[in-house]
Amino acid sequence: MSLYYITTSDWESFLCRLAEGFSLYGLRAVEEKLFWEEVAPDRVNEITVNRYRALQPVKSFFFPVKEEVTLAPKEKKVALLGVKECDIEHLKTMDAIFIGGALVDPYYAVRRGDTFIISCDCDDYLPSCFCTLIEGKPYPSKGFDINISPLKTGFIAETGSAWGEKIVSSSKELFSEAQPQHLEEREKQRLKITEAVKENNKDYTWSNPKIIVDSEFVSKVWETGVAKTCVECDACRFACGTCYCFLLSETSKEWSRIRTWDSCQSTGYGRVAGGANPRKTKSERLRNWYTCKLLYRPENFGFYACTGCGRCITVCQGKIDIRRSLQRLKDKIV
Fold first, then answer.
1. Please, are residues 138 and 192 in contact by the beta-carbon 8 Å criterion?
2. Given CA atoms 22, 106, 163, 5 in this order, what sign does their dihedral have?
């Protein structure tokens, strides 16, 4: 909507003001990993906004690992600082599931409406990042309230919603109009990180994963080349920003209903009455996850439910790499 420039010191002042009206969450670095953490107004200078995505998916703010869904949802104004493009793209799938269908999930809807998203361009990448392989890029272009692009002396702040414009206007003395040299610096940085991510994935020659998983659905590669080292820990599902399956349980002593994340890689996920299981093997269950992300979601929603964030690669105890798996399927490497 609008492009502004703000210095580094004024940016910290802006965040202090923002933290007075929102519960502010930012990224804290622990060696090479980034974690979401609530930030007090006097500690805004300690958080990281750029680099790359956090280890935890942003979906956990809207769809918690465990929550009681008995009473009406509570409202709470939250601001997320440092959201990356891959997470913004994840929210397209979550929105389609929880608020885009015939029924709206009230808990998700309230949190989504109460959350102010400040995204940021990536200026670094992890070895597991592959957004450029899956029709993505390492910087946002939509889906945010404000996006910031780090510069040498400050940031370009781009508003993406009326809410974002309102928040900037409330501190308009801290912002100025972005100048051509600021935009030129931003474009150079974006081109540099895009080429770096492409170079990181130069060994993978596949494209159009939808066709790959569809045409190789009955391939032996699923068992011998993809799921062979899977230990069924469910980490890939819980780290994924677009997995939305859940279990509902009710307490016995005092009635309440609890919702928790579920995983289609678990043996009992597909089990039905009488003990039958349409996906008995781990390779069948892992194949289902790939087809869900790369085939079924494009057919249903028109976009992939994988954005190349690489979290599944990072957390996999069996060292399964979705990029390598797709390459094996493409090349039929058993």
1. no
2. positive
